[in-house]
Amino acid sequence: xxxxxxxxxxxxxxxxxxxxxxxxxxxxxxxxxxxxxxxxxxxxxxxxxxxxxxxxxxxxxxxxxxxxxxxxxxxxxxxxxxxxxxxxxxxxxxxxxxxxxxxxxxxxxxxxxxxxxxxxxxxxxxxxxxxxxxxxxxxxxxxxxxxxxxxxxxxxxxxxxxxxxxxxxxxxxxxxxxxxxxxxxxxxxxxxxxxxxxxxxxxxxxxxxxxxxxxxxxxxxxxxxxxxxxxx
Amino acid sequence: xxxxxxxxxxxxxxxxxxxxxxxxxxxxxxxxxxxxxxxxxxxxxxxxxxxxxxxxxxxxxxxxxxxxxxxxxxxxxxxxxxxxxxxxxxxxxxxxxxxxxxxxxxxxxxxxxxxxxxxxxxxxxxxxxxxxxxxxxxxxxxxxxxxxxxxxxxxxxxxxxxxxxxxxxxxxxxxxxxxxxxxxxxxxxxxxxxxxxxxxxxxxxxxxxxxxxxxxxxxxxxxxxxxxxxxxxxxxxxxxxxxxxxxxxxxxxxxxxxxxxxxxxxxxxxxxxxxxxxxxxxxxxxxxxxxxxxxxxxxxxxxxxxxxxxxxxxxxxxxxxxxxxxxxxxxxxxxxxxxxxxxxxxxxxxxxxxxxxxxxxxxxxxxxxxxxxxxxxxxxxxxxxxxxxxxxxxxxxxxxxxxxxxxxxxxxxxxxxxxxxxxxxxxxxxxxxxxxxxxxxxxxxxxxxxxxxxxxxxxxxxxxxxxxxxxxxxxxxxxxxxxxxxxxxxxxxxxxxxxxxxxxxxxxxxxxxxxxxxx
Lengths: 232, 519
Prior knowledge:
The complex is a heterodimer. Chain A is of the alpha/beta class. Chain A is 29% helix and 27% strand.
């Protein structure tokens, strides 16, 4: 009895949320603390989604970046891709990205830092295709601004002091033979390394991109099977 | 006769303009031979063997007629253009001004001759229909005598009612067969009987035949002056001062739009510096137009210009004049604003403002959004449309496109496509025949800048033969999906987890290039 009234009093304060509310808040991209991600790659991420204000670096796979955008934009979040003039957006649509909520700035030129800062103010996700063009000093400021505004920064390339790093290691394609068939599926191995809760790196098998509906990925014990991040 | 003028023919030739098989207009020479409006083209050509036929082009006619309208509008207020070639205006005011209807007609003829070189026929009468008939005859009918003027005329003159659209053709046909061959005979039948037999249409036609038509003219009102401008003293060369100025001028524009009850769909922002450098941008306005949105757009444009973004050189002096000009002004009641949910609209507004800010920094074309279009290859299927423009599709994406690549599309489309070679075991280049068959199994893919990669799997070719009828723009190639072994990478490309790369290669005339990279 006393526990129930105590938790009710805490909840009525407004700033405190119960564990159940935290889990539910994940669903709403407009106000949730975690942006949703496709089910087949959600297990790769600590918290099962993209934490608002965090920075994620993806090495070696553009499809992985697009897949991270997919569920959030489909649910109403807005995303922008800066400095990636070569990306094929038909593939983005196939992976589930809502193109009507995607803005593309192919050539930011020397104003890359100001453009990213302007986008952080209004977008929920900002993808930087050419992070090597950004000065080290501006990088810190951009990350601080993103953290303050709650915008997720996705970098296709190296980014210093990221919260989460996803690195494509190898992949195998299926569906074609010698002169017949067409690409249907790729099984890839991704190394996930984070900070805080997911500090130890681990390797995950992900099937991406694929035409077939895929069951939940098999958690791979090869390499260092680290502790999974805390999930509400 | 716009068609004739455009075609450069002489106006003394018999010329007719047709639209859907019926003659719409004819020249004087054609009329003399017996060609009439509303006649079928076959009959017209039977009557006049040397008839020159043009197709009706209302745009061309309107364009050529515009100077005539402008010349007439200098003398007459409240001019209405019925169709290119016919102008109607109230005559009582101007006639009183110049001292009589005859003088007015003379002044008009002189004016038109002087300004445009066009000769016109002018007619004055009570009522719209009577005036049209009078104009055909070049007669000035004294006020009150329109009925007597119309009475002896053929009933088929009523074809000219409603700008000769031919709406009353059936009615007039029936009247003709009933024996009512003149307008006078028609008007002797009581209106009640005509109305009971033919309905409202008949009553209208009857009133017109009597010269009592009640038709208000839709006047051309001069557009209200909605441009707002502000002189800036001292000249502005700092971004925060630009922000203050922007807010003031946006407030003035908003008040002006509201007082006229209009809204604008697009807006032009003009900025001029002390050294007469100009920056003009046309923005699409987010509806409903708000002071904050306009102020932000002005501020970002000035910020972009003062900081030297957007591909324009930065100004050498401060901005001295700022002008906001609404384009595409519509009545506020006509706008249909979408009803969106609150959260949706918030997100869209915030995102839109951020993107407009980036457009101010980099230029209008720098921010795009992808649209899936129709087509066969990955390049033409995802088109980048400038942010703020309509996301319209050029070709139907859902239509069957034979030769289109199946669903998994490449994620990277390098531009320009790297050239390379696909060779078989012997080292000879693999060729795709006309019947879309590969002549040998591909063994190695050599692309400039990359190490040679052994081929592990390949698909059958997809042929593309687009626009074969065009001398330029014809695309003829064969596409192939290949999986190559990338070999040991910095990650862990070992025997247990091989690293494979999938490519989309295309062959044109025996030369291969990499069109896309998967994954």
